[in-house]
């Protein structure tokens, strides 16, 4: 008998991702809260994709006492691993649940339902009709209250929160770890998002960025090191091998010194060293240990501390890591009018510092740690010149020989309670055409050459998973498991959900073309062999005529350069 069903509609917040293969913290905390109050209760977990595929799972949900929907993409993107629940689906599926108490949690309940970039969010109260309880506070705390109130919907306090520093929250995190075994990506591909704290020091100091919802979490509220490590230890014991420290606005500000006294408090190098050392102690053989979210302002204002922290990360993490930096704009007027974090020169310095230490290539083929740059359009003060300035800035980054792993371009989504709520999508609508023109230019003029620099031809990307096959294009898609993985398109049909290595032969704007590595030279057809750089038509024809090649010597004999031949397999 199932007591509680969690329906994971997926979440994506500025700090925290929960679209497969990621599992966010909220979903685990929900399970943990149930097991904290009712250790004997059965909790079931379904993703929205599982429900779409098999709507009969709703029968199980209908027999439970409580059904918790988790939903909300506050920074929606395009996802390969799953499709977040839509507003219509949320209403439709919740209406199909009759008897159980229906609870809505996650960003949709807290901030409103984000539909897409460039549109205003749907206010949270719009869902009042459909749910018995909307968790305006922390859904795990609301559930604790509901259980303590003996499931009385009338008495539950749906604004209640649970400080991240509290022993209860940290125990809930540890207990909730057990839900991971129900996730469809468990164990191999699952990447678990870990929360280190919430609440932005800059916003708390009184200077929130005009569009950001992190302010609503208030004073930075740090989880104690011990609580984080106990949770990770439990996850590791259960078989989780991939972790991202992604649930915080700025990892470099974990346990920072001087919160509330300054916009950019001093990073606590020792706390971060303890965090990474501790993770490796309790989870020694992690296959992925990545980070997310670094405030470029912290790096710029505390250069030496930032260098030390970057070194610590590079020592303990796994390569292919991204320090996602919300630059948002390189237009000084937009920066000023929206309280953004850094001026262009300051951002440039932060990018240099991360490159200085992180650019070294790691065992999986990718540089260790590179900045990811986020731009937001539609902010106050934006003019057509803003688009030029952003493009010029990124060209300067490229021309200086620096690397960034991704340039994320999005249109602002205005949420109630932020300064941008007044402005809404008016600027976006005004600049609709120019947005598309400059997005395309950024992809062509910066992304493409940058990708060639970050992943040069003949780089071997190791341990990628084949995730999808596009029948029309005859492409298999694969990705490494980690932060902002690069999409590898392989122009052949490969078995799905297999871990493989790929050698990169070509580049798109935001994806690369790969062949299996080592290259099965005796098996590939003419078209695929021709993709290998510097094998011209003649050499490919000669190679095909002389197949099967038995050794590297055979390859060299017919004139294949050593640099290429050494990547062949001769089966
Ligand atoms: S620095 Fe700005 S964007 Fe980042 S969390 Fe704080 S308020 Fe939000």
Question: What does it look like?
Answer:
Helices cover about 35% and strands about 20% of the residues. It has about 575 residues and is α/β, with parallel strands linked by helices. The chain has three domains: about 5-150, Rossmann fold; about 205-250 and about 260-450, tm_1862 like domain (pyruvate-formate lyase- activating enzyme), CATH 3.80.30.20; about 460-570, Beta Barrel (OB fold (Dihydrolipoamide Acetyltransferase, E2P)). The strands form six sheets. It has a five-stranded parallel beta sheet with strand order 3-1-4-5-6, with helices on both faces. A five-stranded mixed barrel has the order 15-16-17-19-18. α10 links the parallel β10 (about 240-245) and β11 (about 290). α1 (about 25-35) packs parallel to α6, α7 (about 165-175) runs parallel beside α9 (about 225-235) and α15 (about 385-400) packs parallel to α18 (about 430-455). The longest helix has 23 residues, at about 430-455. It is globular, with a radius of gyration of 24 Å. The model has no long low-confidence stretch (mean pLDDT about 95). Bound molecules: iron/sulfur cluster. Iron/sulfur cluster binds near residues 202, 203, 208, 209 and 295.
């Amino acid at each position: 008998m199932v007591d509680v069903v969690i329906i994971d509609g997926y979440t994506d917040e500025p700090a925290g991702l929960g679209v497969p293969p990621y599992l966010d913290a909220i979903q685990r905390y929900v399970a943990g809260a149930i097991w904290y109050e009712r250790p004997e209760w059965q909790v079931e977990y379904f993703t929205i994709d599982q429900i779409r595929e098999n709507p009969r799972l709703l029968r199980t949900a209908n027999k439970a006492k409580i059904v918790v929907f988790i939903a909300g993409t506050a920074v929606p993107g395009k996802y390969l691993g799953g499709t977040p629940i839509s507003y219509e689906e949320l209403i439709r599926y919740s209406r199909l649940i009759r008897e159980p108490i229906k609870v809505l949690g996650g960003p949709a309940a807290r901030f409103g339902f984000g539909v897409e970039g460039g549109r205003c969010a749907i206010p949270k109260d719009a869902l009042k009709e459909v749910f018995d309880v909307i968790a305006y506070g922390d859904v795990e705390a609301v559930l604790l209250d509901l259980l303590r109130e003996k499931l009385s919907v009338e008495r539950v306090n749906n604004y209640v929160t649970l400080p991240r520093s509290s022993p209860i929250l940290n125990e809930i995190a540890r207990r909730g770890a057990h839900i991971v075994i129900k996730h469809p990506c468990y164990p191999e591909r699952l990447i678990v998002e870990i929360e280190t704290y919430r609440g932005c020091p800059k916003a708390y100091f009184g200077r929130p960025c005009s569009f950001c919802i992190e302010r609503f979490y208030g004073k930075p509220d740090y989880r104690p090191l011990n609580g984080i490590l106990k949770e990770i230890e439990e996850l590791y014991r259960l078989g989780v091998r991939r972790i991202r420290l992604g649930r915080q606005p700025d990892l470099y500000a974990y346990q920072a010194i001087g919160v509330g006294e300054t916009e950019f408090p001093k990073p606590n190098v020792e706390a971060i060293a303890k965090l990474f050392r501790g993770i490796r102690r309790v989870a020694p053989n992690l296959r992925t240990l990545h980070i997310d979210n670094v405030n470029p302002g912290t790096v710029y204002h505390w250069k030496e501390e930032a260098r030390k922290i970057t070194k610590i990360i590079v020592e303990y993490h796994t390569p292919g890591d991204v320090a996602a930096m919300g630059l948002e704009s390189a237009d000084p007027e937009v920066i000023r009018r929206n309280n953004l974090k850094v001026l262009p020169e300051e951002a440039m310095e932060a990018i240099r510092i991360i490159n200085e230490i992180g650019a070294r290539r790691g065992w999986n083929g990718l540089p260790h740690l590179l900045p990811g740059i986020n731009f937001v359009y539609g902010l106050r003060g934006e003019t057509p010149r803003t688009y030029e300035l952003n493009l010029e800035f990124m060209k300067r980054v490229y021309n200086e020989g620096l690397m960034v792993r991704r340039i994320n371009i999005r249109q602002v989504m205005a949420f109630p309670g932020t300064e941008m709520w007044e402005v809404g999508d008016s600027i976006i609508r005004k600049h609709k055409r120019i947005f598309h023109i400059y997005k395309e230019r950024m992809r062509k003029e910066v992304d493409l050459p940058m990708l060639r620099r970050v992943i040069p031809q003949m780089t071997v990307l190791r341990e990628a998973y084949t995730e999808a096959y596009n029948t029309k294009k005859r492409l298999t898609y694969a990705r490494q498991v980690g932060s902002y993985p690069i999409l590898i398109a392989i122009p052949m049909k490969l078995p799905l959900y297999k871990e493989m290595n790929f050698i990169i032969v070509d580049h798109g704007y935001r994806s690369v073309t790969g062949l299996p590595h080592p290259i099965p030279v005796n098996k590939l057809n003419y078209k695929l062999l021709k993709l290998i750089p510097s094998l011209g038509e003649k050499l490919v024809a000669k190679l095909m005529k002389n197949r099967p090649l038995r050794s590297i010597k055979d390859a060299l004999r017919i004139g294949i350069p050593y640099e290429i031949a050494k990547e062949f397999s001769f089966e």
